[in-house]
């Protein structure tokens, strides 16, 4: 996992692969977005950013309210799907 976290392109691909796997299991977009938010909360509290992109995302997450964080999570899902 540390290799995945150290490179932002690897991180986006990892997320994209997991999103596709979830969709293949029949998990809907709303559930995926909710899970992305929960993962964002976990990462914010437990994982130190490994690169500049992750540091920017953490800083944005930290200043955002719950609604803005949910929007960020949904945008990360979209970004990962296009990677």
From TrEMBL:
This is DUF3243 domain-containing protein. It comes from Cohnella rhizosphaerae. The lineage of its organism: Bacteria, Bacillati, Bacillota, Bacilli, Bacillales. Pfam families: DUF3243 (PF11588). InterPro entries: DUF3243 (IPR021637), Uncharacterised_YmfJ (IPR024702), YmfJ/YflH_sf (IPR038292).
């Amino acid at each position: 996992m540390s290799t995945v976290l150290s490179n932002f392109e690897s991180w986006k691909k990892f997320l994209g692969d997991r999103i596709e796997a979830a969709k293949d299991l029949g998990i809907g977009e709303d559930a995926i977005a909710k899970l992305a938010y929960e993962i964002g909360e976990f990462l914010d509290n437990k994982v130190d950013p490994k690169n500049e992109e992750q540091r920017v995302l953490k800083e944005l997450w930290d200043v955002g309210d719950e609604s803005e964080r949910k929007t960020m999570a949904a945008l990360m899902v979209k970004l990962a799907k296009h990677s």
